[in-house]
Amino acid sequence: MSVRWGPLNKDDAGSLAELGAAIGAADGADEHFSVEDVAEHLANPLLDLAEGTLAARDGQRVIAYGYLPVKQVRDGLHAMVLHGGVHPDFRGRGHGGRLLDWAIGTAPKLHERAYPGKGLELQTGIPQGNTAAAALLEGKGFAAVRWFCQMRRDLSKELPQVRVPEGVDFVTYTPEFEEAARRVRNESFRDHWGSAPHTAESWRHNITGSRGFRPESSFVARAGGEAVSVVLTRHLEGATAATGVRTARIDIVGTLREWRGKGVAGNLIAHALTAFKEQGYERASLSVDADNPTKAVGVYTRAGFEIYLRTAMYSLPITPA
After folding, report:
1. Residue 282, Cβ neighbours under 10 Å: how many?
2. Which tens digits make up the pLDDT trace of 170-207?
3. pLDDT of the residue at 294
């Protein structure tokens, strides 16, 4: 049967969930999304389904896909991230190249509509060691610019002791902290590569309003009544169903610059790990920039996290900032 190409639609959530599981198994990824999780991604208000997505179908099954949501601008640059992949059984047939050609041609149109006159860069990530994907990207003009570590921790092992710094208290996240947590995240990530500030809308859709967000497993460090550090967590039920391991996924660790180096983040993470275990989680996981300016890899390693996968971010500058 010939492959048909066209945009994704909301009815593709089930097929995309199956495709994502096949890609994750082949590439060693540790994330598994349920149909409901994928449906939430497709409902992203920053994603234009008709023009910002492309899928290859073999019959009714999606066997390759790409989607390009717009993103906030930082320092005059709009860094659009291409999400996508090809089913392992259909690799080596030119589908990946077609998706990249589509993204390179489509990104400027979506960008100009959202941020006319701003700079544009197209980015995408692949598991380090995927030589075929790396060669394909490099052949299209992309270059590897950053590396990320996927880390996890067995919660059955001895947990680090919690020592709350003087003048600081740790509290569980509640809705009253929503704006304060967004502020801490945006300010603390200003010197992080590839980071753009969350708007109130993107924050609610992607973080606190997402179906996976777990407020009871998220925490805020306060000093003088003001939030200075956050640990925000999600749990994917689809991942538990697929792996049999209940994992607390730390999405965001952010600490205001003036509170770095004082033991706040490390102890807030230790506090979170203790809570995760009490809540019945068996594992904690996170993703971190290998060259994070706060030396976060070392913080997480001291908390017992270990690297299980490295990914490379590739970038193609299209228009300068």
Report:
1. 16
2. 999 999 999 999 999 999 999 888 888 999 999 998 99
3. 74
| Exposure of 17 in the CB half-sphere (CA atoms within 13 A) | 21
Tokens, residue 84: 């996508």
d(C-alpha 287, C-alpha 149), whole Å: 6
Average pLDDT over residues 254-278: 96
Residue 154 confidence class, pLDDT cut points 50, 70, 90 = very high
**CB contact at 8 A, 54 and 5:** yes
* Sign of CA pseudo-dihedral 263, 265, 266, 271: positive
Tokens of 51: 């023009």
Query: What is the C-alpha separation between 207 and 63, in angstroms, rounded?
Result: 28
Domains of the chain: 3-148+312-319 (3.40.630.30), 158-303 (3.40.630.30)
- Sort 163 into a burial class: Cβ within 10 Å, 0-12 / 13-18 / 19+: exposed
Query: Given the structure tokens 């540790």, which residue do they identify?
Result: 30
Listed in sequence order, the residues at least 6 apart from 159 whose beta carbon sits closer than 8 Å to its beta carbon are 270, 273, 274, 277, 304
Smallest CA-to-CA distance from 51 within 4, 94, 8, 101 is with: 8
- Confirm if 207 and 175 have CB atoms less than 8 A apart: no
